[in-house]
Give the backbone structure.
Amino acid sequence: MKEKKEKVFKGMTAPVDVHLDIPDEEIWTYKIDGLAEPHINKPLTNFTAKKIVFTVLLVIAVFISMYFSVRVVSRVPFEYNAVGDGTYEFTKFNNTGYIGHLDIDYAIEIVYDEENADPATNFTLQKDESKPISTIPQFCFNCDEKVETIYIGKSVKEIDGKAFFTCKTLKNFIVDEENEYYCDIDGVLYNKNGSILLQYPASKADLHFVLPESVSVTDIDGRTHTVSFEENVTDGSSGSSIFEKYSNAVTVSKMSPHLRTVEVVERTGKLFCNDEEVI
């Protein structure tokens, strides 16, 4: 039988077994030819400078971590600005993570119970009735994932089309009957006469939605779009229901992932919005 030879490629040397006879007392300090000398019990080059740089970077990392941690914990849940007529703008809502129902009628202060360790129940929302809310600007509720029901008080007279932008868990609007500017129909937010659909709750569970006959304009995405009244239209597509282009009318407004059909019923005659003819 022929002896099997290990193949050696051109430019390479055949492996050679190397045995080192290192005394036990030199096991940590023995220098091998061609390798750097061990640094056991010997000072490192520029050790002090490297130590200073490492310490500075560590302190900066800890400071940044603490800064953002404190910022998240100390976020003010409710932010308001005085409008100038005795009312207030509700500029920003930062959910504590446990607020599922919210009234927007007066400025709110959150008060914590220090003896209660349960974060879901250790606070109360106290209203200041000397500070009525009149305005809800865009992104006030940006990307909230806890609120399910919002009550709009009678003093609110201006709501931006993106005020409740991507509120994924929102199921229902309730508007005070004395409000002169807005109303709710089956949990959906409209202007007072029902001609503008302002917000369809993103998590409303209905599978089918019939656009009320009063609606002439949708403003769900912060822009106004005329609704087609020329014929009966049913969008039976699956997935996230979106108003499509019908006739000469454009309505592009994402509503709810639960919806499967949106129906626009037939209208007759001319309709107006803000004193301007839209159809």
The longest helix spans residues 47-73. The longest strand covers residues 123-136. Confidence is low (pLDDT under 50) at residues 228-253, 266-279.
